[in-house]
Structures are given as C-alpha cells and as structure tokens.
Automatic annotation (TrEMBL), chain A:
PANTHER family: ALKYLDIHYDROXYACETONEPHOSPHATE SYNTHASE, PEROXISOMAL. It comes from Cuculus canorus. This is Alkylglycerone-phosphate synthase. It catalyses: 1-hexadecanoylglycerone 3-phosphate + a long-chain fatty acid = a 1-acylglycerone 3-phosphate + hexadecanoate; hexadecan-1-ol + 1-hexadecanoylglycerone 3-phosphate = 1-O-hexadecylglycerone 3-phosphate + hexadecanoate + H(+); a long chain fatty alcohol + a 1-acylglycerone 3-phosphate = a 1-O-alkylglycerone 3-phosphate + a long-chain fatty acid + H(+). The record marks R333 as: Important for enzyme activity. It comes from the Eukaryota. Its main location: membrane. InterPro entries: Alkyl-DHAP_Synthase, FAD-bd_oxidored_4_C, FAD-bd_PCMH, FAD-bd_PCMH-like_sf, FAD-bd_PCMH_sub1, FAD-bd_PCMH_sub2, FAD-linked_Oxase-like_C, Oxid_FAD_bind_N. Keywords: Acetylation, FAD, Flavoprotein, Lipid biosynthesis, Lipid metabolism, Membrane, Peroxisome, Phosphoprotein, Transferase, Transit peptide. Belongs to the FAD-binding oxidoreductase/transferase type 4 family. One of its GO terms (molecular function) is FAD binding. The active site is at Y492. Pfam families: FAD-oxidase_C, FAD_binding_4. SUPFAM superfamilies: FAD-binding/transporter-associated domain-like, FAD-linked oxidases, C-terminal domain.
UniProtKB/TrEMBL annotation, chain B:
InterPro entries: DHAPAT (IPR028353), GPAT/DHAPAT (IPR022284), GPAT/DHAPAT_C (IPR045520), GPAT/DHAPAT_LPLAT (IPR041728), Plipid/glycerol_acylTrfase (IPR002123). GO terms for biological process: ether lipid biosynthetic process; fatty acid metabolic process; phospholipid biosynthetic process; triglyceride biosynthetic process. Keywords: Acetylation, Acyltransferase, Membrane, Peroxisome, Phosphoprotein, Transferase. GO terms for cellular component: mitochondrial membrane; peroxisomal membrane. GO terms for molecular function: glycerol-3-phosphate O-acyltransferase activity; glycerone-phosphate O-acyltransferase activity. It is found in: Peroxisome membrane. This is Dihydroxyacetone phosphate acyltransferase. It comes from Cuculus canorus. Part of a heterotrimeric complex composed of GNPAT, AGPS and a modified form of GNPAT.
Length: 572, 681
C-alpha cells in the first residue's frame, strides 16, 4: 500500500490538483468523482483569496535523500529474538520515514524540505494478535520503545518520535492485521483485526450485506485501531454513533498483559468502563489488536440534499432546531460563506449549455428573487440514509424545519459535491504548498449557545493574528458546523494563508494555530472533538481535565506501562 | 501578479504596559481644532439639517430602538430574573414583566433624527454664546471613527459639568459619528425632573439610570441587559462617566466599577470579539457650575435642576466661559488589556445568561482598568494658564503682587511641563497677557487691585465673622477648583516632597515609608493605580530629579540647594490636604460619639472647622469642603481606623479612636511611620 501513497503529501500518488497547460486547475486520477475534471474558476479563487500567484512556485524535493535519514540503531540481540518469531521487519530508510509522521503541516513541511531529528529504527509487521504479544514481550525484555502505527493519518503530532528517546524505537505497523475474524448476524456484530483500513472494512462487510457506518473523513486511509486509540467520530454518527457507541469489545496488548472483557454485551455495570481507558489512549498504553464492532445492514437508499440559508446565524438556528427535534439525518453540515465560495470554486466545468443555463437560473432565483446576499449566504449539506420511504419522510421533516429558518432547498448535487469535497480537500494542501500557501484544519466541540460566538471570534482571531505576525495577505479563515448533538455541536475550521515574505512560515503558522486554540478554549469550546491531543495539544490537557483528572490518567499509565515501553509521549 | 486580496484598514491599539508608568518623556499629543469657528462662519440651520449618515459598526444588523427594547425584555437574562422574582414574591411573572417594561420605558432611549437636529441647532446657538472656542483633537476623532466601525465602543469622558455629554454628542454629530447612548444617572431631583429637557435628551439618544438601585434586582437586570444589548449589537457607542457623578472639585473622582464591569462583560463572555474603551478628557477654562459647586461643598443646598431653574440659568448665557478642550484618547482594546490577565474560561461552566458574581480576578481587573482609564483621562486633560495662576495665588494669600504672580506662573508652567502636564498656552501669547486674560475670565474669583491680585471675597470687611469666613471659604474653594486640576499631575513628586519635610530625614527608606503612608491616606483624594506604591514613589523621585529638585543615591534623598524652592512649593500645594485631613481626623478622634451616619458627620465636622476658622486657630478653609470630609472618612475606613456598616437607612460609621490618634501622630511626625515595604527598596 505504501507504494500507492504519496511519501510527502496526502493520499494516493495518482490523485492530486494540478494546473494544466491552459493554466486551469484540474484534479488528476480516477479515484474520485472530481477526477479528470477541469475546475475553471478555481485559479481565480486562489488568487483572490490568498493573493497567491502561479508565477510564485515552491518545489518539494522529488525524492527522499536516504543519506539524510537518521541511521537505524537496533541491538543485535533483539534482532535475533525478532527473527526467531518470524515476524517480518524492515530497517529500510523509506519504510522508517514513512512511519515517522502524521499529516500535520509541520510534518509535511519537513518531508518536503527538511529531515526529522528522530524516526523509528525498525518497522515490524505483525499479522495477528499473537505476533503483537510477542513483540511487546520482546520490547519489554530489551527495554525498547514501541510506537503503534495504523493508517498514519494523525493530525496531532501523535506519530512523531520523541527526539530525546534513546532506546530503539519500533514502529509497530498494524496494516497486516486486516482480517474480519467473524461476523455474528444474530447480534449484528463483527470481530475485526485492528489494522484494517476503513474503506476495506466497509467493502468487505458489504459483501455480506453489512456496514459499520463509521465514516471519518480519513476513512480511505485510517484504521480501526487508530479510531479506537483516538476516540474517532464518523460523518454518519447520527445514525451509527461515534466509535465509543460502536465498540462492543476491545482486545489490547499492554506491557502488563492483555486487557479485555469476559463477554460481549451491549452494556455492563462493572465499575468505570475499561474501554474508556483504551479509547483515546493514543498509543500510550498498548496495541489494540482485535475489536468487536456493531454492524448494520447496508441501507437500502441514500439521498443527498442541500439547503441555502440567508446567513450563518439562521443556518445555525436551523441545525439547533433539528438537533432539538432529534431528527438529524445521517449527516448534516453547515458551511459558512467563505467555505461555500470555496466549494463553488471547485465546481467542475459544466458539460452542457443547458446545465449552465440552469445554474444561472438558480443563482438568479436565490440572489435576486429571494434577496440572499451571495457574500453572506451559507449552505447546509445533508445525507439521508435508510428505507426509501422513511428517507423521503425524514427529508420532508428536515426541509420543513429549514423553511422556518429561511432556508431554500438547493438540490442533491450541491449536497453530494459538499461531501466529496471533504475527501479531496486534504489533497488541496499539497497544491497550496507548491504556491506558498500553508493550511490546516482543526476542530472543537461547543455548547449550542456559544456556537455563533465561537465561530466568529476564532475566525476573527486568526485574521488578526495573521496580520500581527506579518502575513501579507488576509488568510482564509472559515468554518463549518459539522456534527450536531443534543447539547452542542462540532465545529471544523479551515485556515490557510499565503506565506510569501515570511521567513519561517511554520513557526508563524504554529503561533497562529495556538492562538486559535486559546480562543476556542476561552469561548467555551473543547480541546478536541475527535482529532485527539497527541503532542500538539498536550499543553492544554491540565486545564482541560484538571490536575486530578490528569493524575487519574497518569496512574493508569503508571500501572499498565511502568517502563514506558509505549513511549510516544502523547496525551500526558 | 494580480493581488486583489488586501487587508482592511484597522486601528492599531497600544499594548498594555503593566507597570502603568507613563511615558515620562514629553509626550507627543495631537493638535486641536476649534469646531465653533466653522459654526460662526456658516448657517446653524444648514448645519442642523445636514446629511447625517454616521459610520456604523461593521457587524451591525440594523434595528429600531423598539426592537432593542423587546430584545432586552425577551432576553434570557431578564426573563431569568423575572421568573426568579416571581417565584420569590409569589407574584405572577406577567406583573413583574410589566414592571420591567416600565423600567425600560423610563430609561430607554429613542433617538429621533428630528430631535437630534433640534439639538444641533440650539446647542450651536448656546455654545457660541457661552464659549469662545471648543477645541478638539481631530486625529482623535478619526481614530474614534475607525474604532466604531471595528468593535463596540465605550466612551469614557471625564465629568466636570452637565455640558459634558451635551458637548460630546454635539461633537459626534459634527463629525458625522453615531450618537452615543448615555448612561447618565438620575436622582430624584435630577434630570428626570426636568420633564421637557429630559424627554428631549431621551429622544436625542440619552438613556437614564436611577442613581441608586442597589437593592432592585429587576432594575439592575434590565439596565445591565440594555447596556449589553447596545454593545453586542454595536447599535451605538455607549457612554458613561467612570467618576459616577460630576466632580465638584475638578479633581478626578475615584472610579465606580459597576457600569464598567457591565460593559466589559460581553467581552469576558466572548459575546463580542473585543471592545474599545476610549478615554476622553474634557477640560473647561471656566466651569459653568463653579459657584454652584462651591456652595454645595459648603453645605448650602443647590437649586433643583428643574426646567424653570434652567430657564433662570439664562442669565448665564450672557457670561463668558472661555475655551473647552476635548481630547479624544487612543481607543484601548479590552482584549489587549485582558490578555494574560484573567483566567481564560471563568464563564465556561455556567450558562452565560445566569447572573454570576465576577471572580476576584475579574473584579481586580475591572478596578485596574478603571484606574488606568482615569489616569489616561488625566494625562490628556488640558491645563489652562489660569490653572497655574490659581495654584500660585492660593499659596500667596491674601494678596500677591501682579508682577510676582506672572513670574511665578511662568516658573510653574515650566515645572508642570516637566511633570508631563498638558498646558495649552497660546503660542505667541506673553505671560502678562495670559494672566490678564485669565483674570478677566475669572473676575468673579480674583481681581487686580492696585497692582496686586486678590481673591474676590466681596463684602468680607463688613458683616459678621461667620459670614466673613463663609465668603472667604467660597472664594477659596472656587479658586481651588482650578488649582485642583494640577494635583493629579503633581501628586507623586509632591507627596515625595511632603514626605521629605515630614520625616526630616534624607533616608530613602523613611521617606518612602512616609510617602507610602500618605499615598494610602490620600487614596480617595487622588488617583493612584492600585498597588504600585513603590513605582509611584520612584516616579515621584524621578520627576524631582528631572527638575533638579533632589538628588538621590542608593540610600538617600536630599534636596539640592535650588531644589528647596520646588520642594517647598510642592508641599505647600498639598498642605491644604495634609492640614485638612489633620483637622478632620482630630474632629473624629475627639468629638464624635459611637456610631454616626454621614449625614451627622458632615455638619458636625463642618461646624468644628468653622469654629476653628472663626477663632483664627487654622487657616485651612478647604477643610470645609464636604468632598474632603467624605474622602478623609473613607480613608479611615480603608486604613482600618473606622468601620462602615450598612444599615436600613444608608451607612453608619464607627471610629476606633486609638487608631485615629495613631494616624494623627504619624501626621504630626511624632512617631515614625511604619516601614511596610522598606525591604524592597
């Protein structure tokens, strides 16, 4: 799989944004709906939004310089023991670099033009639970450090090796543990090895007519074990739940031994749920090897939809009402105006004059007839799932609520494009990097009554910090309400700026991101809704969960892993 | 390359300097522009009817005053209090809601353009008759204009006269800025009594709060929510007076915190991104109410501010009140002030609409900001030549030779500028002319007779002793009103000078202890940033060194040869306060019985001082000022020598005789002052 993926950017090698010979933007490859399409307005949008210009280009080095890579230091005794287990391993530089990072901006930047100070010394590929037990035993015996590696899509610096780690670092790649062990149709559960990647899991379950319904935006690359370790959240959580709702049983190998429960039941009252020590432990306690997860029959019918609101305030009010009536579709998201325009810029060239005429008519109706200001309006995208009849009924209910808040139905196509965007947007950063634009996303969760204030203040803070830090052009600072709950919402921010004229863009970027996080916390938002803490947000843990709370987590770590074998230094 | 993306223009704000130490090098200030000049040249009617399209807050969603009122009434905050009260009193919420509506109507503003135009016209006429010039720093207006577009704005003018808020609104209209909504206090006999003018003012945009509503939770809730709604929506700048009331002495009053904490709350709760606080210094060459204030300070009831009273005040219109200077300070970003100061999320764990007592952190911060704003007001307060004349004259009673007065005034001008005072001395005006014009303008206070300048205490020669004392006191208090404008600029070096004289010592440690004691005693009299006694001392020493009055070494402070003149002058400037406090403390230590109220205290101490004056035992007329008397009592409470208790009819006081005697001893330098922080020197 490593061969299919970019070594210095997001996703598949064959999929990326380019500017073609005519200077028009184009998305390559055939993997996505956008593949091979020309995006005529995109270039203008980039220039307008960032002040970026195609004439100013940076280039990443084209391949890794193996000589720069820190050498692999592994003692021979361990290697002998490892060979005896027959578990495959590698000390190859490219293999090690590939597992030395996640997808934070600074990590990608290092890949493009620098080198990590510390990377894993060896990569091992266990193929089953027992292999993992052996590796952990060996690590304990030789006092080595293990960093579990799943899909490598972390955005919290969780995969970075601590620079000061003197022991050999083993990257434990779970990708070969990717089988579905069994499916229990009576209880609607499946036991799956933790290394399986989201899209493979869904594909294989689909063969039996089932799905988990867990679809984080990274599902093409992220793994089941990774979801558990970070407390992941999926796009369709309204129907299927977040990872903590989906998991029935977890098996984890720790230096202290194997932790698991004695039965696979929907709920039990046996003290604090030990699953909650594991979920969100971010690889600090052990390796998740097998997970029993809830499954559902593949839904009969899916329908996208979208609603245009005159402004963001009305949109949020509508989402709140939908949440209040507990009738949220599988997914409901509200993007602000900047993101709406962004999505608009990624509209492919229209095939016929007729569709273009239709588009014009729609636009005329919304802006002129209904009086929506195109620079203020915002869009909600919807995804319904289930029985055909129920979906249609559900759809009507939601659209009726939307109408009360001034919303206008804006078609299936817009909705579908909105969801497609979340998959391709990660590719966009690589394009930006080629043209002096750095960007990143971050998220939070917040009570309903503070959603508007938080969105406004965080966006404003970003703009101000950029200006103060000498950024030459106003940044893109945009958000969407991406999940709704009874008591609040999850908000997702995109933030990007043109760094021409700044000598240390990464440092500036990090300062601004930090300021944005401070702003989130001051506005009553959480440290993270689903990305996790890693090393990037550790700084705020104490304030987030109190001294005692942190102490509770520390004492668990102390008991489970006294020698700090799982020494990735995340979280605590 | 095409570069369409550009930064919007914004105001840069100054960073908060925690030390609070002012830039002591002579600060560059903006130039003034006379707005009446234009008024004298063109039609007032056309001016009143001009196209008035003020710039507005960028995030404003336009709405009518009525919409705001109903938003306030329906707000969670007000509804919460209504429900609470209904439950507690066993009444139906509807009745309380009605009460809330009435409150809102009483204070609610409803700006009507017609009224604004009416005001613009009449005020033009009136101001032109009353004042020679109304000078404004135009750069300040421009900064304000930017600020209004960017964030909610709170205007914090100094308060010396009723003219203050009329003038400020007039000014904003002139510069095409949104008229502020004014949180002006109303007492029983105050503004609201003036039915017609009151209604006119309301339509002009003023809104009113009762002066005391401590106990009325509903009133507080409605009022607070009203102010906050104004701010959140960015509907108009909110204006109020930190000092709470007009300063009768022209000396900045210690700040009140209630309104300030209300306007800061939307930011604390992150309902707004930021809030601009704009200190505004309004100084009058001659204060309209000067004689009224003097009577009031001496305990003669002031005439009610009824409409008919105002009409009688027509005769004032024929008088000349010189020049007004209005300095719009740099807008200060609350966010910048707060950064790093207060814990990030004090409001995260409780719904924001629930009334919540601010944490100590926040209370302290509010107080610091209040003092900082007042210090900024003081810094930009314009001092006229007459202020210097008054200060010299008061040290040379009963009469001073005209030439000597000029000489000393010039000398004081230099000293004031060294201390950072903002003197407007018309460029090529010679000292003689400046003093003369001051005397002309203030002929009711002082006169030139036979080459000597004397206080205008007419009729002193004839009449009973008591009347002579009263008239003299009146003249001195009026004159003091002008000298007082210097005091907050002079207070730090002067208290060092007083301490030097009181301790008879050159040891820095001892001088500092005495300084620190004086600073505590006078903490209600002058404006000190809380808790930085040592910094204030250092600033005082620095300024004295700068004018060559003292020399300092590691351990010692001693006046230079020529410095004695300055040190004596400075300590004489503050002698009325040292003397006055001493008298008041003496009264309290001997003459009072157990518990007393302010209403008993003021006449008591007044009689006491009056008798001493009659007998000629003291010359400290200023001790008759009720302002000083109240401050001295408050000082005792702060120093722990008196206890203040809340009773059903107000406050009552208990004095600890022993403690007061001890303070008196310190004043008389009979025992050395404690050395609280000597170690830090």
């Amino acid at each position: 799989r490593q061969e299919l993926l970019k070594w210095n950017g997001w996703g598949y090698n064959d999929s990326k944004f380019i500017f073609n010979k005519k200077g028009q933007a184009e998305f390559t490859g055939k993997r996505y709906r956008l593949g091979g399409m020309v995006l005529p307005t995109f270039k203008e949008w980039i220039e307008k939004t960032f002040g970026a210009s195609l004439e100013h280009k940076t280039t990443s080095r084209t391949s890794l310089n193996v000589n720069d890579v820190p050498p692999s230091v592994v003692n021979e005794e361990f290697l002998q023991d490892l060979r005896a287990t027959k578990i495959s391993y590698s000390q190859d530089a490219e293999d090690r670099i590939f597992r030395a990072h996640g997808h934070c901006l600074h990590e990608i930047f290092v890949l493009r033009e620098g080198m990590f100070k510390r990377i894993p010394d060896i990569v091992v590929w266990p193929v089953c639970h027992e292999d993992v037990v052996k590796i952990v035993e060996l690590a304990c015996k030789h006092n080595l450090c293990i960093i579990p590696f799943g899909g490598g899509t972390s955005v919290s610096s969780a995969l970075e090796c601590p620079e000061e780690e003197k022991r050999t670092i083993i990257s434990l790649d779970t990708s070969q543990m990717n089988r579905i062990l069994w499916i229990d149709e009576k209880n609607l559960t499946a036991c799956v090895e933790a290394g399986i990647v989201g899209q493979d899991l869904e594909k294989q379950l689909a063969e039996s007519g089932f799905c988990t319904g867990h679809e984080p935006d990274s599902m093409e690359f992220s793994s089941l074990g990774g979801w558990v370790a970070t407390r992941a959240s999926g796009m369709k959580k309204n129907i299927y739940g977040n990872i903590e709702d989906l998991v029935i049983h977890i098996k984890m190998v720790t230096p202290r031994g194997i932790v698991e429960k004695n039965c696979q039941v929907p709920r039990m009252s046996t003290g604090p749920d030990i699953h909650h020590f594991i979920m969100g432990s971010e690889g600090t306690l052990g390796v998740v090897t097998e997970v029993t997860i809830k499954i559902r029959p593949v839904p009969e019918y899916q329908k996208y939809g979208s609603v245009v609101f005159p402004n963001f305030e009305r949109g949020v009010a509508c989402l709140r009402e939908v949440a209040k009536q507990r009738c949220a579709p599988a997914s409901i998201r509200l993007v602000d105006n900047a993101q709406f325009q962004f999505g608009h810029a990624l509209k492919p060239q229209v095939a016929s004059i007729f569709t273009s005429f239709l588009d014009g008519l729609k636009k005329f109706y919304i802006t002129k007839f209904k009086g929506f200001d195109p620079n203020v309006l915002c869009v909600a995208t919807l995804l319904f799932e289930g029985d055909r009849e129920k979906v249609l009924q559900h759809e009507k209910q939601v659209y009726d609520i939307a109408t009360k808040f001034g919303g206008l139905a804006a078609g299936e196509d817009n909705g579908q494009r909105g969801y497609m965007l979340t998959f391709v947007i990660a590719y966009l950063r690589d394009l930006g990097l080629d043209y002096y634009v750095v960007g990143e996303s971050f998220e939070t969760s917040v009570p309903w009554d503070r959603v508007l204030d938080l969105c406004r203040n965080v966006k404003e803070r970003i703009v101000r910090e950029c200006k103060e830090k000498g950024v030459q052009f106003p940044p893109l600072s945009t958000c969407r309400v991406t999940q709704t709950y009874d008591a609040g919402a999850c908000v997702y921010f995109y933030f990007a700026f043109n760094y021409r004229g700044i000598s240390d863009p990464i440092h500036v970027y990090e300062q601004i991101e930090r300021a944005a996080r401070e702003e989130i916390l001051a506005n009553g938002g959480s440290l993270s809704h689903h990305h996790g803490v890693g090393k990037l947000r550790k700084h705020w843990m104490k304030e987030s969960i109190s001294d005692v709370g942190l102490g509770m987590l520390r004492s668990v770590k102390e008991y489970v892993d006294p020698k700090n074998i799982f020494g990735n230094k995340n979280l605590l | 390359a095409k570069q369409t993306a550009e930064w919007p223009e914004t105001v840069s704000h100054p960073l908060f300097v925690c030390s609070q130490q002012k830039e002591l090098t002579s600060k560059k200030r903006d130039e003034f522009e006379d707005i009446l000049e234009e008024r004298r040249l063109s039609s007032d009617l056309r001016y009143a009817m001009k196209c008035y399209t003020p710039v507005i807050y960028k995030g404003l969603s336009p709405c009518k005053p009525n919409a705001i009122k109903s938003a306030v009434l329906q707000s969670e905050q007000v509804q919460y209090v209504i429900k609470q009260l209904a439950k507690e009193m066993g009444e139906s919420p509807d009745i309380i809601q009605e009460e809330a509506t009435e409150i809102l109507d009483e204070m609610g503003h409803s700006m009507q353009l017609g009224t604004v135009r009416f005001f613009a016209f009449t005020l033009s006429k009136i101001f032109k008759r009353l004042f020679q010039r109304v000078c404004v720093n135009e750069e300040g207006m421009q900064r304000l204009q930017h600020a209004i577009q960017e964030h909610p704005v709170v205007l914090l003018p100094s308060h010396r006269s009723y003219v203050d808020f009329l003038m400020l609104s007039y000014l904003l209209y002139t510069y095409d800025l949104a008229l502020p909504v004014i949180a002006a206090g109303i007492g029983k006999a105050d503004f609201l009594g003036m039915k017609i003018v009151g209604e006119l003012l309301r339509r002009g945009g003023a809104f009113f709060m009762r002066r005391s509503f401590g106990g009325n939770r509903l009133y507080w809730a409605v009022f607070a929510e009203y102010v906050k709604t104004m701010l959140r929506s960015g509907y108009a700048p909110v204006e109020f007076f930190l000092e709470g009331t007009r300063s009768r002495t022209a000396k900045t009053l210690t700040p009140k915190f209630g309104l300030l904490s209300i306007v800061m709350e939307p930011f604390f709760k992150r309902e707004v991104f930021d809030t601009y606080l704009v200190p505004i210094s309004i100084s009058y060459e001659r204060i309209l109410e000067e004689s009224l204030y003097a009577y009031e300070l001496l305990g003669v009831p002031k005439p009610k501010e009824s409409t008919s009273g105002l009409l009688k005040a027509r005769r004032i219109l024929s008088d000349n009140f010189g020049t007004i200077h209005i300095y719009i300070g740099q807008p200060v970003s609350l966010r910048t002030l707060a950064s790093g100061r207060i814990s990030r999320c004090p409001y995260n764990l409780v719904p924001r609409h629930l009334p919540q007592k601010p944490s100590e952190d926040i209370q302290e911060f509010v107080s610091d900001v209040a003092y900082k704003m007042e210090l900024l007001q003081i810094e930009n307060m314009v001092l006229s030549p007459w202020v210097l004349v008054a200060a010299v004259l008061l040290q040379n009673l009963p009469a001073v030779e005209f030439e000597l007065l000029i000489e000393k005034t010039l000398w004081l001008k230099g000293l004031t500028q060294t201390f950072g005072g903002f003197i407007e001395w018309p460029d090529n005006l010679c000292a003689k002319k400046a003093v003369m014009s001051g005397l002309t303008l203030h002929s009711n206070v002082a006169r030139l007779i036979d080459g000597h300048v004397v206080l205008n205490d007419k009729g002193v020669e004839d009449g009973a002793v008591g009347e002579i004392v009263f008239k003299r006191a009146l003249a001195i208090l009026m004159c003091a009103t002008y000298r007082n404008q210097l005091l907050n600029v002079f207070v730090r070096p002067s208290l060092v000078a007083v301490a030097l004289q009181m301790t008879h010592s050159f040891r820095k440690e001892e001088v500092y202890s005495c300084f620190s004691f004086l600073r505590d005693v006078f903490s209600d009299e002058f404006i000190f940033f809380p808790g930085i006694s040592l910094k204030d001392f250092e600033e005082g020493c620095f300024l004295l060194t700068k004018c060559d009055a003292i020399q300092t070494s590691q351990q010692e402070i001693y006046p230079t040869d020529k410095g004695n003149v300055i040190v004596s002058f400075l300590s004489a400037m503050f002698r009325p306060f040292v003397e006055g406090y001493r008298l008041i403390f003496r009264y309290l230590s001997k003459e009072t019985k157990e518990a007393f109220t302010e209403k008993q205290f003021i006449p008591g101490v007044r009689n006491f001082v009056f008798q001493l004056l009659e007998k000629g035992i003291t010359q400290c007329y200023e001790a008759l000022s009720s302002d000083m008397q109240k401050n001295a009592l408050a000082a005792l409470v702060q120093l722990g020598a008196a206890k203040k208790k809340k009773t059903s009819s107000g406050f009552s006081y208990n004095v600890n005789q022993e403690a007061v005697n001890k303070i008196l001893d310190m004043f008389d330098a009979r025992i050395p002052v404690q050395k609280p922080m000597a170690a830090r020197l």
